[in-house]
Design goal:
The chain is about 35% helix and about 20% strand. By secondary structure, the protein is of the alpha/beta class. Helix 1 (about 15-30) runs antiparallel to helix 7 (about 250-265), helix 3 runs parallel beside helix 4 (about 110-120) and helix 13 (about 430-440) packs across helix 14 (about 455-465). It starts with a strand and ends with a helix.
C-alpha cells in the first residue's frame, strides 16, 4: 500500500487546491493590512469584506455579526464569555436570567471546559448541568424541558464529531420557546459546514462557531456567527479590528483560503451532493460489514452525517484496528483527535450507554464532501483487504505475551500449535483468547494464575468449559533432587516448582537447571537458572534475565536515515518488524528497500532467547516507534548490546 487514504476528515481535512492558491495570492499580491488606508491596504480590505459577504450568504446570516476567528475554540470562548457577561448584567438589572449552564453530554470538550473556566473566572456561580443523550446520541428533550426554565445558557452541537449524530435542533428550539426559557443558545456548527443545510437567520441560535480546517481550509481560521441582538463581549481587545469585535491583525492568508472554500460551497459543483455522500457511506458500511463479521455501528446511520461511521469490532481493541488500518495505508481514528493522547474510553459513547467493551473497540471513519468515486472504491478495497489480513492463519508461536491494564499473561504452545497452556491470562482478553484457540483448533491443557485472583484463569476456563488451576499428578519430573508435577507440552515440560513454573526440555525424567528456558511466577533462587528468561505478570520489563547485567537503553534511537546507514554498514544486522500479524499481513514493512523479518512484539520473548544465544545487531521497526522502542529496551535490559529501533517508525520513514 504505497499511497495513503485519509479517512479522518472529522479531525482535519486536506487543503482545497483553490484555497492554497487563494492563500498564496493573498500573501504575494494582497499582503496589505486591511486597516491601512493606502491602496495595498484597501485591496486587502476588499478581500476581507468580500469573504465576509460570501460567508453570510453560505450561512444564511444576512443579519447579525459574522467575524473571523482563529478557529472554533476561540469562537466557543467568545460565545461563553458573551453569554456569562450578559447573565451578570441581567442580574444587576434584576431581570430573569436563569441559574443553570446546560451543556450536552456529548459536546466537544472545548465547550464544558470553557464554561467551567469562565464561570469560575467571572464568579458567576452558575450551576453546570449535563443534558443527557439517548441511545441514539440525541439530546433528551424531556430532560431539557425540565431544565429550560432555569437555564441561563444552553450549549449543544449541530452534529457530533465522534459519531456524526445530527442533533434535533428544531426540537431543542421548540422546547426553549414553549418553556419561555431565558436561555441564550450556542450551537457548535463545526461539523455542519458543507454537510448540513444552514439558514442561521431563520433559527433561534444566538452563537454558532465554525472552524475552517474541518472543511478544506487551513488551520488557524474560523468564523463566529452572533445573532442580531444577542449580547456580545469581545474576547480580544486591542487595535479594534473586525469593527472592534475581535482585535488582532486579520489572518488574511487564512481568510482568503476560507473564502475559496466558501466560494466552492456557494457556487456548487466542487463538493458532492447530500445524496451522493449517503450512497458512498452506504458502500463503505457494506464493505465494513463484509470485512468484519459481527461489526456493530455505534450510532444509527439514519440520524448521522452522511460522511461519518463509528463502529466496533468485537474482540479487537481500537488500537489494534487503527494499527491494522494504518498498515494498509488507511488513516482512521478512535474518536476525537483532541482526546487521542488520553488513553480513556470515549465519553461520547459512554453518554450514549454503549457497553464499555464495545466502546474500547470503537473506530471512527470519516470522509469529506470532496471525495470522489475512485477514492470510495479504493477505500472499500482496502477495508476488505484489512478483513482478509485478519483472517490470515496465525502461526503457533511457542510463547505469546498478552497485555492488559499493565499486566502480562502468557500462552505456551507446542511445536505444532495443537496444545496450549495459559498462565495469568488477562480477564479482559478471556473471550478473545477462547475465540483464538477455537479458531486454531487448539486444546487447552492447563490454565492457572500464578497468584490467587491475579489473572483471568477462571473467566477463560468458564468460557471453554474446562477446570481452572494446576492439574496435579499428570506427570512428574525430577528437578534439583525433588520429584515435582509437570505437564508435557510437545517435547517440553512445564514443571511446578512451588511458586515458580519452569519450562524446558526434560531428559529421562530429569529437568536439569540448564535445560530450563523460561520461568513464570517467582524469580529463581537457584543460580543455575540465571540463563533462563523470567516472564513476569506485573512490571516493566515483562521479561528479565537475572543472570545478565542490564545495559543502558537511552541511546536506542536511530532516525530512518541513520537506521538505513547502520543496516548498510552491518551486513549481519537484522531489521525486525514488531507489528502484530494482521498489520504485517496488510503490508510488509520495509526500510529504504530493505525488507524486515517479522517477529511480533507479543512473540518477542520467545525469539529473544535465540538472539541472546547468537548475538547479532538488531534494528526494530513498527508503525510509530513505540513498540519498536519497547523491543530495543527489552533486549538491552536482557544484556544484548546491539539493539536499536527506528524512531518515528514507518510513519516517518515513509
Amino acid at each position: 500500500m504505497n499511497t495513503e487514504l485519509y479517512l479522518d476528515a472529522n479531525a482535519t481535512s486536506p487543503v482545497l487546491p483553490a484555497a492554497i492558491e487563494a492563500a498564496t495570492a493573498a500573501m504575494q499580491a494582497c499582503f496589505g493590512n486591511p486597516s491601512s488606508s493606502h491602496a495595498c491596504g484597501l485591496r486587502a480590505k476588499a478581500l476581507l469584506d468580500a469573504t465576509r459577504a460570501r460567508a453570510r450568504r453560505v450561512l444564511g446570516a444576512a443579519s447579525g455579526r459574522v467575524m473571523f476567528t482563529s478557529g472554533a475554540t476561540e469562537g466557543i470562548q467568545t460565545a461563553v464569555l458573551s453569554a456569562l457577561c450578559a447573565v451578570q448584567e441581567r442580574r444587576r438589572r434584576g431581570a430573569a436570567c436563569g441559574d443553570l449552564l446546560v451543556v450536552g453530554a456529548t459536546e466537544h470538550k472545548a465547550v464544558p471546559e470553557s464554561l467551567a473556566h469562565w464561570n469560575r473566572l467571572l464568579g458567576t456561580g452558575l450551576e453546570l448541568r449535563v443534558l443527557p443523550v439517548d441511545g441514539d446520541g440525541r439530546h433528551r428533550l424531556d430532560v431539557l424541558r425540565e431544565l429550560a426554565p432555569r437555564a441561563a445558557f444552553v450549549c449543544t452541537m449541530a452534529a457530533n464529531n465522534e459519531t456524526g449524530v445530527v442533533s434535533d435542533l428544531d426540537g431543542i428550539a421548540r422546547v426553549l420557546a414553549e418553556t419561555d426559557s431565558p436561555a441564550l443558545w450556542m450551537v457548535d456548527c463545526v461539523q455542519a459546514l458543507g454537510k448540513l443545510p444552514l439558514a442561521l437567520d431563520a433559527t433561534r441560535i444566538d452563537y454558532a462557531p465554525f472552524s475552517g480546517h474541518k472543511l478544506y481550509a487551513p488551520k488557524g481560521v474560523g468564523l463566529l456567527y452572533v445573532r442580531e441582538g444577542a449580547p456580545y463581549t469581545p474576547l480580544m481587545c486591542g487595535g479594534g479590528q473586525e469593527a472592534g469585535q475581535r482585535s488582532g491583525t486579520e489572518n488574511m492568508a487564512g481568510i482568503a483560503a476560507l473564502g475559496a472554500v466558501l466560494g466552492a460551497l456557494e457556487e456548487g459543483g466542487t463538493f458532492r451532493s447530500h445524496a451522493q455522500l449517503h450512497a458512498w457511506r452506504d458502500r463503505l458500511a457494506a464493505a465494513l460489514r463484509e470485512a468484519f463479521p459481527g461489526l456493530v455501528f455505534n450510532a444509527p446511520l439514519a440520524h448521522a452525517l452522511p460522511t461519518t461511521l463509528n463502529f466496533s469490532v468485537p474482540g479487537m481493541s481500537s488500537k489494534e484496528l487503527l494499527d491494522l488500518f494504518d498498515a494498509a495505508g488507511v488513516r482512521v481514528s478512535a474518536g476525537s483527535a483532541c482526546s487521542a493522547a488520553k488513553a480513556a474510553p470515549s465519553y461520547v459513547l459512554d453518554a450514549m450507554g454503549v457497553p464499555a467493551v464495545r466502546s474500547a473497540s470503537a473506530v471512527r471513519l470519516s470522509f469529506g464532501p470532496l471525495a470522489d468515486e475512485g477514492f470510495i472504491e479504493d477505500a472499500c478495497a482496502r477495508i476488505l483487504h484489512c478483513g482478509r489480513a485478519l483472517g490470515v492463519a496465525k502461526p503457533a508461536a511457542r510463547l505469546q505475551q498478552l497485555e492488559s491494564c499493565g499486566a502480562s499473561g502468557w500462552l505456551l504452545f507446542d511445536d505444532a500449535g495443537h496444545h496450549c497452556i495459559a498462565i495469568d491470562p488477562p480477564a479482559a482478553l478471556a473471550q478473545r483468547i477462547a475465540a483464538d484457540l477455537g479458531a486454531r483448533g487448539c486444546r487447552l491443557l492447563a490454565c492457572f494464575d500464578t497468584s490467587h485472583g491475579a489473572g483471568g484463569a477462571d473467566a477463560l476456563c468458564e468460557i471453554l468449559g474446562v477446570k481452572p488451576g494446576w492439574p496435579g499428578g499428570a506427570q512428574h519430573v525430577v528437578f534439583a533432587g525433588a520429584m515435582i508435577d509437570a505437564i508435557a507440552l510437545g517435547q517440553d515440560v512445564l514443571a511446578n516448582a512451588g511458586d515458580a513454573w519452569l519450562l524446558g526440555r526434560a531428559e529421562n525424567g530429569m529437568l536439569a537447571p540448564q535445560g530450563v528456558r523460561f520461568v513464570f511466577g517467582a524469580a529463581p533462587a537457584d543460580a543455575a537458572l540465571d540463563a533462563a528468561l523470567c516472564c513476569h505478570r506485573i512490571g516493566e520489563p515483562a521479561v528479565s534475565r537475572p543472570g545478565a547485567a542490564a545495559l543502558p537503553d537511552e541511546d536506542i534511537d536511530l532516525d530512518p536515515a541513520s537506521a538505513a546507514a547502520y543496516l548498510a554498514a552491518h551486513p549481519d544486522a537484522l531489521l525486525v518488524d514488531v507489528r502484530e500479524l494482521p498489520e504485517h499481513a496488510a503490508a510488509c514493512a520495509q526500510l529504504r528497500g530493505r525488507r524486515a523479518q517479522h517477529v511480533p512484539l507479543s512473540q518477542l520473548a520467545g525469539q529473544a532467547a535465540q538472539w541472546l544465544r547468537e548475538p547479532r545487531p538488531l534494528v526494530f521497526l513498527c508503525r510509530s516507534g513505540n513498540r519498536s522502542a519497547r523491543a530495543a529496551r527489552l533486549l538491552r535490559r536482557l544484556g544484548h548490546a546491539q539493539a536499536w529501533h527506528v524512531a518515528g517508525g514507518l510513519a516517518l520513514a515513509g
